[in-house]
Design a protein that fits this description.
alpha+beta, 10 strands, 14% strand
């Protein structure tokens, strides 16, 4: 007899004022130490958000060590500084250095994923990543180059392959995740957003005839809506297409609610000169997680921990400094 399906919703229990105290201390100490404390600040921030993210009555844990993160950031800073200096000394040297960085980036991304997942746990079981370097070079280097050469016609396909590689090679204990979203669903989502963008272009032409003030008001709102559509649609598509063994994950965010929270957060941040930032992060985390859940087949506690090897934080910090965001 098949196991009975049980729905477990994610929840976030963090509070604004509680996190504000962590955030303000992290900010002040990072400034006073010229950024050195930022590694410790990152660990404190992640530990707070992990522990307040709960599923089926249990929280997550983050185990990353500040020293390991600091070492990675130092190496990343050296690479970035060397690239900047090389570009100023000789443009050709700068290009060669950029190609060198691009050549090692997929290797660093794999180390980043291993580090992040190995240092994350739930109910005492560690996550892990088993992706190969060869496949990483295909999805993080070859496909992006082809995407540019095809004038971004391959962008949805590339995004799909990145998530497929990322999720199919991630595991919880000895149970692997599985990604079964289709490339067609990525193209459908991107094409809808592109259609909205074309609509915005038409609106500029129509409303410019009626009056420029109307364009100034409506156009930014329309672009915000398109951004919100993608910010909601992509996580919904990705997580609703992800399984953990036999357990089905989902995300059901709504564009209207997301846009409302984003706009009120933005206004509050502006009027408080940035002091509302931690409260805004808490509000958004609470909403996103409240829309996520797991349709479990049987008991979640039955998972058995697999083996995961620790990895260097260098890949993670270098990827972050060069604006490579592949977060789960």
């Amino acid at each position: 007899m098949p196991a009975q399906q049980q729905e477990h919703k994610f929840e976030f229990t963090g509070e604004g004022w509680e996190y504000f105290r962590i955030w303000i201390v992290n900010l002040l100490l990072s400034i006073l130490t010229l950024g050195i404390y930022s590694a410790w600040a990152k660990v404190r921030r992640l530990q707070y958000f992990y522990r307040n993210t709960r599923l089926a009555g249990a929280g997550f844990e983050y185990h990353g060590m500040p020293i390991a993160i600091l070492k990675g950031r130092i190496i990343a800073f050296v690479l970035l500084a060397a690239y900047t200096i090389a570009g100023r000394v000789n443009p050709l040297l700068g290009i060669l250095f950029a190609l060198l960085i691009a050549g090692v980036m997929p290797w660093l991304i794999v180390r980043s994923l291993r580090f992040k997942l190995y240092n994350s746990s739930y109910r005492g079981l560690r996550f892990g990543f088993a992706g190969s370097d060869g496949a990483a070079y295909a999805v993080f280097l070859l496909l992006p180059v082809l995407t540019v050469l095809t004038l971004y016609l391959l962008a949805p396909f590339t995004h799909y392959k990145i998530k497929q590689y990322q999720h199919n090679n991630s595991r919880f204990g000895d149970t692997f995740f599985r990604f079964d979203a289709t490339v067609g669903s990525f193209y459908k989502l991107y094409l809808k957003a592109f259609g909205m963008l074309l609509g915005a272009t038409l609106l500029v032409g129509v409303f410019s005839v009626l009056g420029l003030p109307l364009v100034i008001v409506l156009l930014p709102l329309w672009f915000l809506f398109i951004a919100a559509y993608l910010a909601v649609g992509l996580p919904n598509l990705i997580w609703s297409g992800t399984w953990l063994g036999e357990h089905d994950l989902y995300s059901r965010m709504a564009v209207g609610t997301y846009l409302k929270i984003s706009l009120t957060n933005l206004l509050a941040i502006v009027f408080t000169l940035g002091l509302f930032i931690p409260f805004a992060q808490i509000r958004m985390a609470r909403y996103k997680l409240s829309c996520m859940g797991l349709l479990a087949q049987g008991d979640l506690a039955a998972f058995v921990a697999g083996q995961a090897q620790p990895d260097s934080a260098t890949g993670e910090e270098t990827a972050e400094m060069f604006d490579v965001d592949i977060s789960l």
